[in-house]
């Protein structure tokens, strides 16, 4: 049996990294696992090397569709590649829901019948995705399995505590239109966009800032809130997507806002964090504990996933 993990060629982001992490873990478990690199509107796997960021996972890749279309193949599609599901023939098919929102944006749910007919197992990255697959896709619970993810070791490294500053970090690619009014209103904070930075720079900022704020759509368990929390920041979110679920974003409800226009309450929360940082930081201890357990959980999840097929699931 060979596992093939569908992944866009030449793209470096959270989803492709997760796909490589799974392939690497399957290799560790003694499974035959390969990447299935795709480009737009081309079904044939692309014979290209892994992007530089993913060379460390030491993965192999498929070079022809004929090797994939085999009853002994398990093809792991992601929610951005559902259009390929009916085109790849003669194999067992899995759908990995890394993001619910991206699926809806790309397809508007038009291929839901194909998914119901051809997908043997759904794997989900978040409680948000689980609820969607269970209640909208109508998949049976016995055919839904968790395979989450984990953040890089660079964010987990313990460093001596250094003085924190009244800095709020944000990702300008997600929910900036909701954060911009706060930036214009709250001048006593220094606002730092996390863009165009190396991982080392990200870590450096996260170790001197007090707040990371994210008013994006939270289509899955986003990495940056977890990275910031692990580096000691306090986290503020809205209640969209996965942020609505404590299982996905395990922070006290007082730091989650149902309306991003509650400017007075949001500013009051930020002021509390900045004036009482080390007390407020304790409110995120459980979130940090869960994040630190994610790599071990991912390793166990992938083993359970492989056993589903090896043991005749």
Short characterization:
With 313 residues, the protein is α/β, with parallel strands linked by helices.
How many strands appear in the DSSP assignment? Answer: 12
Integer count of domains: 2
CATH architecture of the largest domain: 3-Layer(aba) Sandwich
Give the biggest sheet. 7 strands, parallel
Q: SSE order in H/E notation?
A: EHEEHEEHHEHEHEHEHEHEEHHHH
Uncertain stretches: none
Number of helices: 13
Which structural class do the helices and strands define? alpha/beta
Shape: elongated
* CATH level-four homologous superfamily name of the largest domain: Glycogen Phosphorylase B
Radius of gyration: 20 Å
Question: End-to-end span in angstroms?
Answer: 13 Å
At CATH level 3, the topology of the largest domain is Rossmann fold
- Mean pLDDT, rounded to whole units? 94
Strand arrangement within the widest β-sheet reads 3-2-1-4-5-6-7
Beta-strand level of the residues, as a percent range? 15-25%
Helix coverage percent: 25-40%
CATH class of the largest domain: Alpha Beta
């Amino acid at each position: 049996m060979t596992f093939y993990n569908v992944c866009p060629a030449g793209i470096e982001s959270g989803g492709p990294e997760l796909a490589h992490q799974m392939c690497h873990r399957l290799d560790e478990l003694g499974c035959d696992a390969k990447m299935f690199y795709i480009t737009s509107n081309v079904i044939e796997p692309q014979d290209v090397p892994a992007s530089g960021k993913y060379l460390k996972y030491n993965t192999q890749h498929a070079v022809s569709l004929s090797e994939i279309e085999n009853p002994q193949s398990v093809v792991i599609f992601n929610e951005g590649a559902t259009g390929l599901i009916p085109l790849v023939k003669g194999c067992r098919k899995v759908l990995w829901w890394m993001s619910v929102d991206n699926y809806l944006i790309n397809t508007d749910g038009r291929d839901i019948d194909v998914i119901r007919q051809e997908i043997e197992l759904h794997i989900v990255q978040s409680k948000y995705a689980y609820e969607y697959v269970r209640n909208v896709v109508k998949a049976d619970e016995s055919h839904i399995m968790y395979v989450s993810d984990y953040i890089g070791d660079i964010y987990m490294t313990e460093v001596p505590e250094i003085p924190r500053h009244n800095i709020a970090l944000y990702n300008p690619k997600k929910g900036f239109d909701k954060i911009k009014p706060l930036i214009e209103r709250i001048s006593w904070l220094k606002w730092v966009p996390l863009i165009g930075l190396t991982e080392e720079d990200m870590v450096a900022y996260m170790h001197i800032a007090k707040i990371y704020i994210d008013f994006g759509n939270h289509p899955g368990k986003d990495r940056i809130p977890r990275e910031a929390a692990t580096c000691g920041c306090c986290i503020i979110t809205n209640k969209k997507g996965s942020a609505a679920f404590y299982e996905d974003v395990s922070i006290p409800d007082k730091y989650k806002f149902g309306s991003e226009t509650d400017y007075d309450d949001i500013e009051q929360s930020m002021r509390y964090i900045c004036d009482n940082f080390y007390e407020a930081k304790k409110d995120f201890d459980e979130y940090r504990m869960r994040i630190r357990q994610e790599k071990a959980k991912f390793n166990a999840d992938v083993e359970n996933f492989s056993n589903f097929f090896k043991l005749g699931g």
